[in-house]
């Protein structure tokens, strides 16, 4: 051992009265140090830091046997005569330090966080004196506290009292699983500070009581005025209102400017009125059913969103509550996506402190819904992080009628999912509003300091059933006996303040009367609300220009010949000496030829040219999904990888010399959370082209909830615009049932009221114009695209420059061959890859009576365009719809009414498809070839 370390040890020996019998103590101290360096004093930490590192330990710590031998040898060399009583004291000192650590790890299990368990004693063996070989006779003995509370020595009874107060009162903290020592030390310090320092003066307590009066008052008022109507009451979790108010005010004082909130229906009406500042009169109209939705379907009142502006000491804060369906947790990644969009509009350093997402969970839903795992997994990734989300769990301790402990989960807490990303969890008793405020401040400060997610578990109860018409005692008789006998949070806190002399009974009655009068007047109940029109900063997103526009509004999507060549070459540019993969180099070389008009444009060139031209026009782009940088089918290559260093080069980042304008992110292996994120992003960013691509089209199945609840219906329910693009590879290539179909039929079945666009582009120019049209026209509705696979390199699926510079997207493409229109008796209508197979066979068989027309936009159906093309053929006897998909899938069943309307009642329309199937496609390649051949032969009348 080094001389300096020995000198340190000798000094510590004298200070601590160590001798040769102290090996057990030293080894125990070292174990504590390895587990948590902050658990030992600074002197011991410095000493252990100086220990030699053993090669077998991967450079992280000294080998245990080495440490043991050094401790024993040094102890013997430095042995001094001591009495046996000192030996016993040193052994107990070790046990005391272990007791302190046990409270840090397990104190939350003993904490009085459950209001329904008041008076119940939880026995945690590790938190007892006996477990650590200590007894009551040791309570008056002074021991070293380690790093407990800023004091070196205390009597054991005082140590235990501090531990109980810090870790086992109405707040329980879980954080010792965090790997970052600085985070753990910070949390320990904040918990100790909250225990020793009160920040609640008389005015703060009165204000807190008024918020509880408001939370309870609204529910009582609605319950008496609208008897039996569903409102999903907050009662039992009333402290959520002061929690959110504190969160807004505290973050506002730190420079926060925008907060995006997502929550399900429990307590939503209360938050809208008492936090967001929504007019009670507006809510009462919704209860009365007198709201005019302007021809839209609208939605129930406890799904509605809202936005407002609040004044804080640090300036105004814009609040946005996201609209939310009954699919509970799905709003979480939507909120995070919306927050990231708002952050991306700001300076990167300003973003983390200016925009914050808050997601309010239910306990059963948090533990039960897989989207939460996906959402947390993206929380620190490059394309999806938001510098930390505040997660609040309204923990009712029951899921609908499911017991929280026995059936709702397999974990100790509903928040155990937080451990996967090392986020701390602060459990707090909802009936102790002051503890709730302390925890809220701590969570906000943690997020600000460490830029990480943090969880607040607001342990409460549900005073009524799942809704107000429910009878909860039928399934939870014991729980509801306790609930019926329990006073409300407002009553308990009022009684506490009356006893403390802070308020009188008359004061409390006055608060209640004042709030009820405000409700009856229909006035806002939020004191910090900035009246509409008085807020000077432009926080909201302006979507007004998209009102009244239509999908068929014309827009010029062509580019000049100069732009075609210039931007095409820009796609091939890499830094000097940048060595590309051989296959990628060949692709880039081919693109140079395309830009120089030496070769026709293929799909990858056309798609990347669209992105380049959009960036060149001033609109930013965001593309995400699994493998989007390269493209699942090796076609996009928007990201170059240097083969020697692994460095990246993205040509599209250099189109407008602003790398922030273009983002392309290979996402985590998630569909549901990522697509929800991108929906939230696109619904917040009007002038950015936002694209999500599925690795295979059928992967979108994993995000069906997002498609059903947001993408297809958000405008009709909530009047929300969104220009999100979904690229879904689709096509029958003989690869089996799983990756053949993007389930086109599901999107077609959802189409109504011009809610979205469904397109099947068949050429590079078509994908070029379609993407440009999506961002260039003043129209924002989701675009669903069936993109190809083998067609990406099909020799016939190419275009000349004129197709990019002379005309735009064609909803319907007429026959491309020069034909005598008078000879045509059969017109085939189709979409996608099947067109090229039909074309090849038709040409090889020289069938002059068959014309092939491509319907490139399936919805909204381009009836006028189709009618104009069909009118060119005067002798049509039969119209044939041809698709690769089975009869019960694909576009046929949804599109035939629209086609028949164009053709008229007497026209003959025949479908040629695979037979109806339960699976999308055949499992064997041979069976696929046979089925595909039958479609071609039947459609062309060859068999």
UniProtKB/TrEMBL annotation:
SMART domains: Transket_pyr (SM00861). GO terms for biological process: tricarboxylic acid cycle. E1 component of the 2-oxoglutarate dehydrogenase (OGDH) complex which catalyzes the decarboxylation of 2-oxoglutarate, the first step in the conversion of 2-oxoglutarate to succinyl-CoA and CO(2). Belongs to the alpha-ketoglutarate dehydrogenase family. SUPFAM superfamilies: Thiamin diphosphate-binding fold (THDP-binding) (SSF52518). Its EC number is 1.2.4.2. GO terms for molecular function: oxoglutarate dehydrogenase (succinyl-transferring) activity; thiamine pyrophosphate binding. Pfam families: 2-oxogl_dehyd_N (PF16078), E1_dh (PF00676), OxoGdeHyase_C (PF16870), Transket_pyr (PF02779). Its cofactor is thiamine diphosphate. The gene is sucA. This is 2-oxoglutarate dehydrogenase E1 component. Residues 601-794 form the Transketolase-like pyrimidine-binding domain. It comes from Leucothrix arctica. Keywords: Oxidoreductase, Thiamine pyrophosphate. Gene3D superfamilies: 3.40.50.12470, 3.40.50.970, Multifunctional 2-oxoglutarate metabolism enzyme, C-terminal domain, TPP helical domain. One of its GO terms (cellular component) is cytosol.
């Amino acid at each position: 051992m080094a001389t300096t370390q020995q000198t340190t040890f000798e000094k510590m020996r004298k200070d601590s009265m160590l001798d040769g019998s102290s090996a057990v103590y030293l080894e125990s101290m070292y174990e504590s140090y390895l587990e948590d360096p902050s658990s030992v004093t600074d002197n011991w930490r410095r000493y252990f830091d100086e220990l030699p590192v053993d090669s077998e330990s991967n450079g992280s710590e000294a080998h245990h046997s080495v440490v043991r031998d050094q401790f024993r040898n040094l102890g013997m060399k430095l042995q001094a005569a001591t009495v046996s009583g000192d030996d016993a004291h040193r052994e107990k000192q070790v046990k005391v330090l272990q007791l302190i650590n046990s409270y840090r790890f397990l104190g939350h299990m003993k904490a009085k966080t459950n209001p329904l368990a008041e008076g119940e004693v939880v026995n945690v063996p590790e938190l007892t004196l006996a477990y650590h070989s200590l007894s009551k006779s040791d309570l008056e003995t002074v021991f070293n506290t380690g790093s407990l509370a800023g004091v070196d020595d205390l009597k054991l009874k005082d140590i235990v009292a501090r531990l109980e107060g810090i870790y086992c009162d109405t707040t329980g903290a879980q954080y010792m699983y965090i790997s970052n020592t600085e985070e753990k030390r910070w949390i320990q310090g904040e918990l100790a500070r909250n225990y020793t320092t009160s920040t609640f003066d008389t005015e703060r307590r009165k204000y807190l009581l008024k918020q509880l009066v408001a939370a309870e008052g609204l529910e009582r008022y609605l319950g008496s005025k609208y008897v039996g109507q569903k409102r999903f009451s907050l009662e039992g979790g009333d402290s959520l209102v002061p929690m959110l108010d504190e969160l807004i005010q505290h973050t506002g004082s730190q420079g926060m400017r925008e907060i995006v909130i997502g929550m399900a229906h429990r307590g939503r009406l209360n938050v809208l009125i008492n936090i967001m500042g929504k007019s009670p009169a507006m809510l009462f109209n919704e209860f009365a059913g007198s709201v005019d939705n302007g021809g839209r379907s609208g939605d129930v009142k406890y799904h509605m969103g809202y936005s407002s502006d609040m004044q804080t000491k640090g300036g105004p804060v814009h609040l946005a509550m996201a609209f939310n369906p009954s699919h509970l947790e799905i709003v979480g990644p939507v909120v995070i996506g919306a927050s990231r969009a708002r952050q991306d509009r700001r300076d990167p350093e300003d973003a983390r402190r200016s925009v914050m997402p808050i997601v309010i969970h239910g306990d059963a839903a948090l533990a039960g819904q897989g989207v939460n795992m996906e959402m947390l997994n993206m929380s620190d990734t490059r394309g999806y992080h938001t510098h930390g989300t505040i997660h609040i769990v309204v923990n009712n301790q029951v899921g609908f009628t499911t017991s929280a402990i026995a059936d709702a989960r397999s974990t100790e807490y509903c928040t155990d999912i937080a451990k996967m990303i090392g986020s701390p969890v602060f459990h707090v008793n909802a009936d102790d509003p002051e503890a709730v405020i302390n925890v809220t401040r701590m969570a906000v400060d943690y997020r600000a300091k460490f830029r990480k997610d943090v969880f607040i578990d607001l342990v409460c109860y549900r005073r009524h059933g799942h809704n107000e018409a429910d009878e909860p005692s039928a399934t939870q008789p014991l729980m509801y006996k306790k609930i019926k006998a329990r006073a409300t949070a407002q009553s308990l806190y009022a009684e506490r303040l009356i006893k403390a002399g802070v308020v009188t009974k008359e004061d409390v009655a006055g608060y209640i009367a004042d709030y009820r009068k405000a409700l009856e007047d229909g006035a806002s109940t939020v004191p910090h609300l900035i009246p509409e029109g008085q807020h000077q900063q432009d926080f909201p997103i302006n979507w007004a220009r998209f009102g009244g526009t239509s999908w068929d509004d014309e827009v010029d999507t062509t580019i000049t010949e100069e732009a075609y060549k210039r931007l095409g070459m820009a796609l091939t540019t890499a830094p000097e000496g940048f060595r590309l993969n051989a296959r990628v180099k060949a692709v880039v070389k081919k693109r140079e030829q395309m830009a120089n008009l030496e070769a026709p444009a293929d799909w990858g060139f056309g798609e990347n040219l669209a992105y380049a031209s959009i960036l060149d026009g001033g609109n930013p782009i965001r593309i995400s999904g699994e493998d989007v940088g390269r493209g699942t089918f090796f076609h996009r290559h928007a990201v170059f990888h240097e083969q020697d260093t692994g460095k990246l080069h993205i040509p599209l980042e250099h189109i407008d010399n602003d790398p922030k304008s273009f983002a392309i992110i290979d996402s985590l292996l998630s569909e549901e959370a990522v697509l929800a994120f991108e929906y939230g992003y696109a619904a917040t960013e009007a002038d950015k082209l936002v694209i999500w691509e599925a690795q295979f089209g059928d992967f979108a199945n994993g995000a069906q909830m997002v498609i059903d609840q947001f993408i297809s219906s958000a405008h009709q329910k909530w009047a929300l615009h969104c220009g999100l693009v979904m690229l879904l590879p689709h096509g029958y290539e003989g690869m089996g049932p799983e990756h053949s179909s993007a389930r086109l039929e599901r999107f077609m079945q959802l189409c109504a009221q011009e809610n979205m666009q469904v397109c099947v582009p068949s050429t590079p120019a078509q994908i070029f114009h379609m993407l440009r049209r999506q961002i260039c026209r003043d129209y924002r509705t989701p675009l669903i695209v069936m993109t190809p696979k083998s067609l990406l390199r099909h020799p016939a699926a190419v275009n000349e420059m004129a197709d990019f510079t002379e005309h735009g997207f064609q909803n319907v493409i007429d026959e491309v061959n020069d034909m005598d229109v008078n000879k045509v008796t059969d017109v085939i209508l189709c979409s996608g890859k099947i067109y090229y197979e039909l074309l090849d066979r038709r040409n090889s068989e020289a069938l002059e009576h068959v014309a092939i027309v491509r319907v490139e936009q399936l919805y909204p159906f381009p009836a006028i365009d189709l009618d104009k093309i069909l009118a060119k053929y005067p002798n049509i006897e039969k119209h044939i719809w041809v698709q690769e998909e089975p009869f019960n899938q694909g576009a046929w069943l949804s599109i035939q009414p629209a086609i028949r309307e164009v053709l008229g009642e007497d026209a003959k329309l025949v479908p040629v498809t695979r037979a109806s199937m339960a699976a999308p496609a055949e499992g064997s390649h041979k069976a696929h070839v046979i089925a595909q051949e039958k479609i071609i032969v039947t459609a062309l009348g060859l068999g």
